[in-house]
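#dry-run=false #mode=assembly
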Amino acid sequence: MRNVLAVLIANGAEFGRAEIEVLSAGSRLAADLGGTSVAAVVGGSDQSWAREAFSYGAVRVYVAGSPALTHYEPRLFADALEQIARSADADVLLFSSTISGLEVAPLVGYKLGASVIMDVTGIDGKVEGGGVRIQKPVFGGKAQSELVAQKAPVVLSLRMRSVDPLQPQEGASGEVIEIPVNVRPSTGTWRLIERNLEKSGGPRLEDARIIVSGGRGMGGKENFSCLAELGDVLGAALGASRAAVDLGWVPSTWQIGQTGKKVAPELYVAVGISGASQHMVGIAAAKHIVAINKDEKAPIFQMAELGVAEDYKVFIPKLIEALKKHKTSATT
Amino acid sequence: MHLVVCIKQILDPEIPPSDFRLDSAGRGPAEGIAPQVISIFDENALEVALQVREAAGEGRITAISIGAESAVDALRKALSMRVDDAYLIRQADFPALDTFGTARILAAALGKLPPADLLLCGRESGDWYGGQVPAFLAAQLDWPYTALVAAIRKTGSEWNLRRQSDDGWETIACSAPAVVSVTNDAQNLPRIPKVRDNMLAFRKTITVWTAADLGLTSESGCGPNTRLKTERFYIPTVSRQCQMISGDSVVQRAEELVEKLAGLRVI
Ligand SMILES: Cc1cc2nc3c(=O)[nH]c(=O)nc-3n(C[C@H](O)[C@H](O)[C@H](O)COP(=O)(O)OP(=O)(O)OC[C@H]3O[C@@H](n4cnc5c(N)ncnc54)[C@H](O)[C@@H]3O)c2cc1C
Ligand SMILES: Nc1ncnc2c1ncn2[C@@H]1O[C@H](COP(=O)(O)O)[C@@H](O)[C@H]1O
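#status=ok
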């Protein structure tokens, strides 16, 4: 296995964390394998994406040459990527577990007859006898699976926040190769008709330095106002467990966890959250975790750094007061 | 209108880590450590299908599952939620099933049913989190594919699919027939079957299909995946020490926490 292809899907968004992670992982894996780190860019993007790819270690960037690819459509993008993977002789294809990544990666994997593993948390190429080692938590993180793929092609999607970004090499350059892809007219239609941004007011969850998050233990939608107040004092973004989302207390864009956002704050305050493994994997990259839960036996206390075993309704108002006091004393 | 929902029976994902044990071969969870349930996102998919039928005022819903005999319970539950028909495909006929095989079998089953307008799957199974079968089905059938859908409406001859994007919501229009994978949302929280429907579900037949019924053999490209080797499968250990805040009064505890946070330089 020599050619590691980092797949970048431009779907109306800017080059960002997801792309950096996938390129960094690709370059590291290529180095492990003694192979080559290359990238593919599909979708309406400008030249800057190729430059970014070079700065994170790709030596070649393949772009799909077809006017049919300016707007994102899963099947067409998968078609184009299959052709790019074949011309680039890609042994390993790396996607990010973004929505388009989760959508397109298995389509491409199917077309290539590849070994496909989604949402992996670790890869390396330090396998005796060659190959790629893949780590994936299963059964809610209650078990961990380590697999080795020895035959190409392998299609993987990387869980967000599972890769340490490389330092970009400013001014690095490489070759841009346009692949004339032939996307066939599809038998069905697919088009984006509306896109709405949901403004949460505070910082974006993914970028937040502090997150205050509530679960089923909040007991009701209206009680989230007390978290909002705590969030205000801390300058935090607000998040939630799946249970709180399912109950309709908060929008599903707030969900943190395996099937929600992966976050990496310096401080994560979990309120009325039991600590199910599917929630905790979303905060694996958090630096400090504080848990407030009235059940001292709640599993979250095995994973948090600081714990308060108390009814949040009693504790949070006092915590807000204490934080305000601390703020005024710090500024005077 | 015909909607088909693929459901998988899995080990209850909510069991506490302390109950989780590996089987003797160390390749999967031990049998019997928890009850079997419908994979959670498949329940969301069932709910979405039911809502589509309700909004349209007509239509049939079929649930299909490849599984062990115990999977009749999952199909029974689907019937009690009021899907119309249920089919169990005998997994024992396909001893080394992989995701390609699963998609192939489901596509074969689909071919035996009245033509479907929409095929719904969960976004990923709640045990191994494959996240592939719906895409493989779409690729095989050559139908449009949309992942992580939360709500669906029929508008004219098209499906209107609403899903969360990275920063909000988006709506997609696609032609029928189509494949979607469903994710959870407050709007598709699975309904709790009524007692009466539970009883009615017990009187319904669940058709069992064998490999031969589908014109397949265990070798029809249904696995095993020989390219991937499991090197290790284990229960990870967590070793974080939690420091409990223990001051005498609430106010003291609040102040102690603030002090600790200040000490960590996060506030
Ligand atoms: C495939 C799969 C994917 C999943 N993905 C996710 C995901 O992305 N994110 C996610 O969060 N979950 C996910 N889940 C669900 C997860 O397994 C749990 O069901 C969920 O995280 C539980 O949410 P919770 O902690 O809020 O609720 P519960 O587990 O019900 O916990 C509520 C807690 O609140 C405490 N409490 C109650 N009242 C108070 C009070 N007054 N003060 C203080 N504490 C109180 C209780 O002691 C309890 O510990 C997934 C599950 C599966 C199977
Ligand atoms: N054995 C099965 N029987 C029926 N449907 C399945 C089966 N396995 C997977 N599926 C469907 O495919 C979805 C995704 O599964 P997976 O790709 O295994 O994570 C599930 O949520 C189901 O809707």
